[in-house]
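Researcher: Go.
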Amino acid sequence: MADTYSNQVEAVIIKLEQQVSAKTAGKMLTRVSLHLMGKLDKYPPSTQANHPNGVNGYSWYVRGFGTRTRTGRAYQTSERFNSRWKSRRAGGFKRVLDNNTTYGGYLIGDRQVSWAKARGWVEMAKVLREEQDEIGEIVREEIAKVNRGRS
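Model: Structure:
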C-alpha cells in the first residue's frame, strides 16, 4: 500500500530519540504497531453485497475468495486484506505498517473509494487520529517501565 503517514510523526520520532533508548523505542513501536493493526485489519460488517444475489441480483463478493455469480462463475480475486499486514523495522525509532494487497489503498487509504466508505471500511488517517490517546498511553507505559527500573 503506497499510503504513508510517517510525515505526521517525524517530530515525535525526533523527541523520542532524545529521550529513550532504541530498545525502549522498539518495545513501544511494536506495541503501537500491533494495536494499530488490530484496528486496521477488520472487515466491516457483512452486507447484502456479501450474500447470494448481492445487491444487483446476480453477483456477490465472498470474503477471502472473490466474486461469485448466480450462473456459477467464480472470480478468485481476494488477496486476503486482513491477513496481509506486516510491521517492519525501519530503524530503531521507526516501524512501517504495510499491507501489500494491490487494492488496500482503495479500501482504507488516501485513495479510499466511495463504495468502500459506504460499506464501512475504516479510513487509516481517521484511525490514527482516533487512536492517538491510546498510542500516547502505550508510550507512557513503556517509559514508566524504564523509569521504574532505574529507581
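Model: The chain has a mean pLDDT of 85.
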